[in-house]
Input
Amino acid sequence: MKSVNIHVAKTNLSRLVEEAAHGEPFIIAKAGKPMVKVVPIDAKSEPTLAPRLGFLKGQFKLPEDFDTLHQEEIIRMFEGEEE
Output
């Protein structure tokens, strides 16, 4: 695998990326020390994410009195009335 120093990579980035995209990965080194490896992205290996909005649709049903559920108890708790 080809290794290039960071200055050469900056100067020839377009060409190097094009080569990597066509299956020729390379390593970018700084002062002779390997820093990063540039490889092509395989589109098939990217995970497909399920849509999050509405993913539980139809899985449960809210009670009809949801907006007033335990309303008396909540009022007592906030207004300080004892049972």
